[in-house]
Structures are given as structure tokens and as C-alpha cells.
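Progress note, project year one: complex with 2-acetamido-2-deoxy-beta-D-glucopyranose.
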Amino acid sequence: MLSRLLPIAALASTALAHGYIASPPARQGGDASIAACGRSVVDTVRADNTSHVEGLPELAAAAGSGYHADLCNLWLCKGLQFADNVANVQSYKPGQSVNIQIKLTIPHTGNANVSVVDTAANAIIGEPLISWDKGYADERDFYAKKTPKDQVNFNVTIPEDLGDKCATAGACVLQWWWYGTGARQSYETCVDFTVAASS
Ligand SMILES: *[C@@H]1O[C@H](CO)[C@@H](O)[C@H](O)[C@H]1NC(C)=O
Ligand SMILES: *[C@@H]1O[C@H](CO)[C@@H](O)[C@H](O)[C@H]1NC(C)=O
Ligand SMILES: *[C@@H]1O[C@H](CO)[C@@H](O)[C@H](O)[C@H]1NC(C)=O
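Model obtained:
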């Protein structure tokens, strides 16, 4: 809808940018991600780390894309693989407060959350650490420069009951997931972390 009102140059940029976790350091694409997801998927994510997931399956489906559905797991961290991020693992303590900063570049009002995800099961552990049911990244707020600060700079508390589930690097990610309800696009960023077994 909005794009109809925008000049061509701005229209081109709407394809380019939406949002990502700027801090802590997020999972990046590299050779392992290319081996799992194919070069076109990973190049697209690398060219624009704010891109939406829905644009990727079409690239993956193209003949000769090098995409392996079972290895890539496109809906988890946009298919970016832990093996490319072993140097980027955050070490947290149970109960620790972790500051998260989101870079929003193009708004699409919707819902969002940050969760601990068990990567092997591709399932959230427990409840989201924080969530917004609606009104996240609202266009009117954004263009009025009134995006609520707590949507883009907030703290989450690392659960105390993870046991040893996240003791091994790669076993868990902190995943930020925002869905723009009007745009029907999902944005995801993952942070690799460990929490030492509590007993
Ligand atoms: C995302 O991409 C922007 C623009 O290329 C870059 O400045 C930024 O460092 C990247 N951040 C992450 C977390 O990948
Ligand atoms: C996050 O936690 C830190 C340390 O407790 C605190 O200084 C900071 O103000 C908090 N930030 C937000 C946005 O609540
Ligand atoms: C987290 O947000 C995503 C995107 O809106 C949504 O699909 C998912 O159901 C949410 N997860 C939970 C546990 O609420």
C-alpha cells in the first residue's frame, strides 16, 4: 500500500531493508551456510541482513541453487549455520539480563518476540522471553520518529531453568522474530550463546 506512494528510488529500497539485531553480534552466513542453503540464499541474506524469510524459498527452489532443505532449515535463523559463527558465541549466566538492540530500517506493524530456541529440535524452550502481540514497528510511530524505545532497546532475562540444554555452543540461539502483519513478511535474527549447566 505504502509503496504506491513512494518514488521509484524509495520503492527499490523497500525491497532492501527491514530490521535485524545489531547487538549482541548476530549469526552471519559463510561457507557452511552456503553448503546447506546454496549460494543465492546466503548471498541474499549477506547482501541485506534485514531481508525477510519469505523471499528465500523461491531462490532455494531454483534449479541448481545448491539448497538442501534438511540441512538448511530456512525458517530457523534464515538457514544461517552455527558452523559459520563459532567465533561469535556469547556466554551467559542463568538469570543474566541481556541487552538487545534492534536496528529497524523499514517498519511494518506486527508482532514480535525473542525466544530461546533449541536448534536441533527447532522449538522454543519455555515461553518467549519478551513479546509484543501487536503494534511492533508501527509505520506511523516510525515515520514520526516515535518508535517506542523499548521495542528497539530492551533487556531479556536468561532463564534459570535451562539445565544443560544450552551448555554446548550451537545447541541454542536467542531468536528475534518479527512478523509484519500487513506486509506478511517475517524477519529473523539469531544470537549464538551458551549457558553453563547449573548443576
Ligand atoms: C548488517 O548490514 C549492515 C549493512 O551492510 C552492516 O553495517 C551491519 O554491520 C550488519 N550487521 C549485522 C549484525 O550483520
Ligand atoms: C538493561 O539492563 C542494564 C543492566 O541492568 C541496565 O543498565 C539498562 O538500563 C537496562 N536497559 C533497559 C533498556 O532496560
Ligand atoms: C513469535 O513471533 C512469531 C512471529 O510473529 C510467531 O510466528 C510465533 O508464533 C511467536 N512465538 C510465540 C511462542 O509466541
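The mean pLDDT is 89.
DSSP finds seven helices and nine strands in the chain.
No further modelling is planned for this target in the current period.
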